[in-house]
Design brief:
By secondary structure, the protein is mainly alpha-helical. Strand 1 and strand 2 form a beta hairpin. The relative contact order is 0.16. Strands 1-2 form a two-stranded antiparallel sheet. It is 70% helix and 5% strand. Helix 2 runs parallel beside helix 11 and helix 5 runs antiparallel to helix 7. The chain has 2 domains: 165 residues, no CATH class; 80 residues, no CATH class. The protein has 11 helices and 2 strands.
Length: 258
């Protein structure tokens, strides 16, 4: 079965693609850190962050619609967590209503917090999608290892990426088997069936993990990530890193001095 891989556009050639994975990872980390440190509702600063990531997306030659579609997937989850913030923050009220015996009011300050969280989350996910779309996962993992991230973390990420699609196929086969047996009945019966499927998937995943580990250990696997391509930090990486970092740092300084 076919799946949409995270790095489906990593084979394209562009300025962003040719950068060292370590440069791109550090740049994205700095970008997300700057977003997290940016004050509430400083829209000129967020505009600069948006223009910066938009320019990089255009330079990467990755389809803009593809990145936008993937980035919007995160919005419902952020809303699910942050949608109640306007009702718990103090300040001037812009809406007030009664739910049964409770009087509920939403404040402008809470609304600003909500919008700021949505903007930060969206810009952060844009940068992460750009990183994974322009970098082969194996090269990215190799770069993370050379940046001295814990080897266990890199190994877990590697296995997660490699086997999430196998588990997806397993789920689809189980679903097909369930549907072929005329899946129906009451809602409670269907919930029980889905619960049993989840338990079966967990057991199969555990057993497969044990078999894979035994096979890899027998072949001398030592936890180190190996790739055919040698990572090379060049002049373009230095210029890009210095320029990108300077823009982000100056924008962050403007945020605190404004």
């Amino acid at each position: 079965m076919k799946h949409s891989f995270l790095d489906r556009y990593s084979d394209r050639d562009s300025l962003i693609h040719r950068l060292d994975p370590r440069t791109k990872f550090v740049a994205v980390f700095l970008y997300i850190l700057a977003l997290a440190l940016t004050s509430l509702a400083v829209w000129p600063v967020f505009a600069v962050y948006f223009v910066l990531i938009a320019v990089l997306i255009l330079l990467s030659r990755v389809p803009v619609l593809y990145i936008l579609k993937r980035s919007l997937l995160i919005i419902p989850f952020v809303l699910l967590i942050a949608v109640f913030i306007p009702f718990f923050k103090g300040g001037d009220t812009f809406a007030s209503f009664t739910v049964w015996t409770w009087h509920v009011s939403a404040s402008y300050h809470g609304l600003q917090v909500l919008v700021t969280i949505l903007v930060k989350a969206w810009l952060s996910i844009l940068s992460l999608i750009l990183l994974t779309s322009t970098t082969k996962i194996t090269d990215l993992l190799r770069g993370l290892e050379q940046l001295r991230l814990p080897r266990v973390m890199v190994m877990i990420l590697s296995f997660m990426y490699r086997y999430i699609f196998i588990l997806t196929d397993e789920v689809l086969r189980m679903k097909q088997a369930r549907d072929s047996r005329n899946f129906g009945g009451s809602r409670l019966w269907r919930i029980k069936t889905v619960g049993k499927m989840a338990g079966t998937l967990f057991i199969r995943s555990y057993e497969r993990g044990e078999r894979v580990y035994t096979a890899m250990a027998a072949r001398g696997y030592d936890g180190q990530t190996r790739t055919l391509r040698q990572l090379n930090f060049g002049l373009s990486d230095l210029l890009f890193g210095a320029g990108f970092g300077l823009v982000v740092i100056l924008t962050l300084i403007y945020n605190y001095w404004h």
